[in-house]
Amino acid sequence: MALTDCLRDFCDAWRAKARDYPVGEIRGAFDRFFTSYVVFNRLYSEATYRLALRGQVKLRERFPDSQAAQEYVLQYCGAQHLIDAWERDEATRTALHRITDHLRERRFALRLNPVTGARRPDEDRKLLEALESRGKNRRAKAVLEALYSIRCNMFHGQKGYQLAQLELVQPAIVVLEKTADALYQVLERNDG
């Protein structure tokens, strides 16, 4: 089944809203990330429900947001489709390199303690290794994990609202929007 008109309209409206935010300043960048994440969230929810209808995942009483944003997106799209989407687009390739460089140089920490916000260098090192992996599944999952980590850090107030954060948030927006586009395409074709 292709996307419904209602879902297409929802995505189009939120994408247009996201494009209106200027990413050159912190407020606009945060707003664009949040708004773009609404689109991604709705799309990975749809993918999760489709996987459940096919019997490929089992849903319980609570929606598995973390799994849906990472594992189920990978399961629905496939690593090759995601990697192709990221690598074919120069802006997305550059954005992924910037995020990886930030981790390598320890300018930013992504895998923060969810309660205290403290850095967890071992977790960031593992994420960096996965981002640099040659294994397609491992690498694709790492990109999705990085996006979800940035989302959690921002949504839960652990990501500082300072100008320096633009160095991470700007490339994260590029990767997030390309990932949402890739998932949208697979959902539209219904070949996930």
Name the descriptors:
single chain; 192 residues; mainly alpha; 71% helix
Average residue-wise pLDDT? 94
What Rg do the Cα atoms give? 16 Å
Helix-strand pattern, N to C? Answer: HHHHHHHH
* Strand runs, count: 0
What does this structure look like?
The protein has 192 residues and is mainly alpha-helical. The chain has one domain (5-189). Helix content is 71%, strand content 0%. The chain has helices spanning 5-19, 26-53, 65-77, 79-88, 90-104, 121-131, 136-155, 166-189.
Please describe the topology of this protein:
Layout: H1 5-19, H2 26-53, H3 65-77, H4 79-88, H5 90-104, H6 121-131, H7 136-155, H8 166-189
Helix pairs in contact: 1-2, 2-3, 2-8, 3-7, 4-5, 4-7, 4-8, 5-8, 6-7
Concise overview:
The chain is an all-alpha fold and 192 residues long. The chain contains eight helices and no strands.
